[in-house]
Amino acid sequence: MNLPTIASIGFGAMARALQDGLARNSDSLRLSGALVRSATNQEATTNFTLWQSAQELIAAKPDLVVECAGHSAVREVVPKLLEAGIDVIIASVGALADSQTRDRIDRAAQTGKARATVVSGAIGGLDVLRAAALAGLDEVTYVGRKPPPAWKGTPAEHLLDLDALREPTEFFNGDAASAAAEYPKNANVTAAVALAGLGFDRTRVRLVADPHQQTNSHELEAIGAFGRFRIILDNNPLPENPKTSWLAALSAEQAVFRHFTNLEL
C-alpha cells in the first residue's frame, strides 16, 4: 500500500515535532519532506526530500502540505499550492488577520478545487465557538496572559517595566484586528478566535503580563443565544522550542489525522 505523501513548509521545531509525532502515533502517515529556504545543514535521505521552491514541491504532487513556516509562507506559498490543487493545513493562522490574504487563500482554493484547513493552535473551544456562532453571538473575549519576559520584544515593554512588575498588569484592551497588528507574536491565537466567532472587529482582546504566571495562559469567553461558556488553557512550551506552544504543535498533528480519517469526530 502506498503511503500518502505529506510535506511541510518549513522544517523548524514545529515541523520536526510533527515528523516525530506522526512516526510515533501512526503506522500509515509519515512526513515525506519539507520545503526549505536552503538545504544547507539539512540532511535529505532516501525517505525524506528537501525542496527549495514551491514549484519543486508542486511537481512532487503531495497529498497534503502542512504550513509551519510563518506568515510570509501563508501569503507567498500557500496560494500557489492551493491553485495547483494541493490541500494545505495552515498553522500560522495570524496571517489571516489580513483580509487580502484571506481573500487570496479563498480564491486560490476555489481555483484549484483544494481545501485550506486552519488549526486551532494553542487555544481550545473553537468548535464550540463556531457552533454557537450559528445561533448568534453577543460577545467574544480572549485574554492572553503570559509571564513578563514573554512580552519582551513587543510594544508591551515600552508600556510597562516588565522586569519590575509585581502584580498582573493589563497593557492592551481592544479589538482583535488591532491586537493582531500590534502583537503579531500573539496573532495566531487572536486570529483563530476571531475567525471562529465574531470576526476581527467585534472580538475583544485583553493582554496581560503576569509575574505569577509560569506558563502561557489563554482564556476564551463567549456569550450568545446558546448561553455562555468560558475556557482557560495553561500551555506548556514545546520542549524543542520554548517560544512555541506544545499544544500548537499537537494541533497540527491532529489536523493531519483528521484529514485522512474516514470517521471525523
Account of the protein in words:
This protein is of the alpha/beta class and 265 residues long. The chain has two domains: 6-118, NAD(P)-binding Rossmann-like Domain (Rossmann fold), CATH 3.40.50.720; 126-236, Dihydrodipicolinate Reductase, domain 2 (2-Layer Sandwich). The protein is 34% helix and 27% strand. The protein contains ten helices and 13 strands. The protein has helices at 13-25, 54-59, 71-76, 78-83, 99-112, 126-133, 156-159, 176-182, 187-196, 246-260, and strands spanning 6-9, 31-35, 49-51, 64-67, 87-90, 116-118, 137-146, 169-175, 204-209, 216-224, 227-235, 237-238, 241-245. Strands 3-2-1-4-5-6 form a six-stranded parallel β-sheet, sandwiched between helices. Helix 1 (13-25) links the parallel strand 1 and strand 2 (31-35). The longest helix has 15 residues, at 246-260. The relative contact order is 0.16. The mean pLDDT is 92.
